[in-house]
Structures are given as C-alpha cells and as structure tokens.
Amino acid sequence: MGLIVNITVSFVLVIAAIFVLVPDHIQQTMLTISLVGLTASGAYHYSEKPNLEEKSEEKSEEKIEEKIEAEFVEKN
Fold this sequence. Notes:
This protein is mostly helical and 76 residues long. It has three helices and no strands.
C-alpha cells in the first residue's frame, strides 16, 4: 500500500508541475476543460435517481432475516 501512495503523490506532483510550467493559454484551456468536466460530473451525479425499488427489496430481505433469526432464538 505504501508504494501506491508514493506513486499517487508523485503523479499528482507531476500533474501540478505540468500545469504550472505550460504557457498561459494552455493553462487556461486545461482549467476550462477541468471546470467543464467537474461541472458535468456533478450535474450527472445530482440528476441520478436513486433506485428505490432496489433499496426497498434490501430492507425487506433484512426484515425477513431478522424475523427468522428472532424465531430461531425463541425456539432455542
């Protein structure tokens, strides 16, 4: 795990160095691309509808398991 952290830190530093060292017009383009990408990602995440049917099925299964477990405990 330590190696992954070191690689990640190095990668981030390289990206930061590239961003700082490139000419201004390229920096502006990179900043615009990042801003649009992050905005689109946030909008997509916000607009996702939760799968309520799946959540209700999970809760139903949990309740059934709890009932079965409670009955088993009562019998023993």
